[in-house]
């Protein structure tokens, strides 16, 4: 699951206008950001095995500290608590914690059985949607397009940058998704780890998008921006 995580983050802006889109992206992808750091330090392991599933050649052989259910619950609670200590906003803190946990739930549907319940359990789970490429692509696109639609319904561009930042992000993410789906497997595990770390640029992009858009529920006197005034 890739686009689906961001689709949920986009849709969450419809639920709560207070957190930035970048913060929502950060919560939705927090487990993968942890995984990339653990992978670089050889704490968790992945193998490149073409044919492991139809959709991805990656075999996630050991990643219980970022992606077990127990770890996901712990990271979700920690993320929500950290946000609450800074912002004193219980509702948003709960939403962000749910977004962190949603990552495991969506992965449960897409991954083959490689998700452990805890770092100490041997049994692994996953429904294996990745073994059906068309279904995976259709579901993820529906989630991503639907989430983006909800975001555009609840926000309006302040300027041309607000349009460009959002739609360039949308097109780039879809392009990257199809390159991963149909392109050659990665050269090495190290390249996977390095590319995963670059997801921080996506988080920053989310803050850039939101900084140039305004929430419509809080902007009744601000018309939707359609371009330069005449």
Explain what this protein looks like in three dimensions.
Helix content is 62%, strand content 8%. By secondary structure, the chain is mainly α. The protein has 10 helices and 6 strands. It has helices spanning 3-15, 21-28, 30-40, 64-67, 69-87, 90-110, 133-154, 160-182, 189-197, 199-211; strands spanning 45-48, 58-62, 115-116, 124-125, 155-157, 213-215. The protein has a two-stranded antiparallel sheet. A two-stranded antiparallel ribbon has the order 3-4.
Brief account:
With 230 residues, the chain is mainly alpha-helical.
Notable features of this structure?
230 residues, mainly alpha, two-stranded antiparallel sheet, 6 strands, 62% helix, 8% strand, disordered C terminus
Average pLDDT across residues?
Answer: 92
Helix content: 55-70%
- Radius of gyration, in Å, reads 18 Å
Order of helices and strands: HHHEEHHHEEHEHHHE
Distance between the termini: 44 Å
Major sheet: arrangement of strands: 1-2
Beta-strand portion reads 5-15%
- List the total number of helices: 10
Report the structural category.
Answer: mainly alpha
Give the biggest sheet.
2 strands, antiparallel
Number of beta strands: 6
| Overall shape | globular
What ranges have pLDDT less than 50 throughout 5 or more consecutive residues? Answer: 218-230
């Amino acid at each position: 699951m890739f686009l689906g995580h961001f689709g949920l983050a986009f849709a969450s802006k419809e639920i709560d206008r207070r957190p930035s889109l970048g913060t929502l992206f950060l919560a939705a992808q927090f487990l993968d950001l942890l995984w990339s750091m653990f992978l670089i330090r050889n704490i968790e392991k992945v193998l490149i095995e073409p044919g492991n599933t139809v959709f991805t050649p990656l075999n996630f052989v050991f990643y219980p500290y970022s992606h077990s259910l127990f770890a996901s619950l712990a990271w979700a609670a920690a993320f929500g608590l950290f946000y609450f200590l800074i912002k004193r906003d219980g509702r948003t803190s709960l939403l962000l914690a749910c977004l962190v946990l949603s990552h495991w739930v969506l992965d449960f549907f897409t991954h083959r059985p490689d998700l452990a319940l805890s770092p100490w359990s041997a049994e692994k789970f996953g429904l294996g949607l990745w073994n059906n490429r068309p279904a995976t692509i259709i579901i993820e696109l529906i989630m991503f397009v639907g989430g983006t639609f909800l975001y555009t319904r609840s926000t309006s561009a302040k300027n041309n940058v607000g349009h460009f930042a959002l739609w360039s992000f949308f097109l780039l993410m879809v392009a990257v998704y199809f390159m991963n789906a149909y392109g050659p497997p990665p050269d090495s595990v190290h390249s996977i780890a390095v590319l995963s770390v670059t997801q921080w640029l996506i988080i920053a992009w989310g803050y850039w998008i939101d900084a140039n858009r305004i929430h419509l529920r809080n902007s009744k006197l601000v018309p939707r921006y359609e371009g330069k005034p005449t």
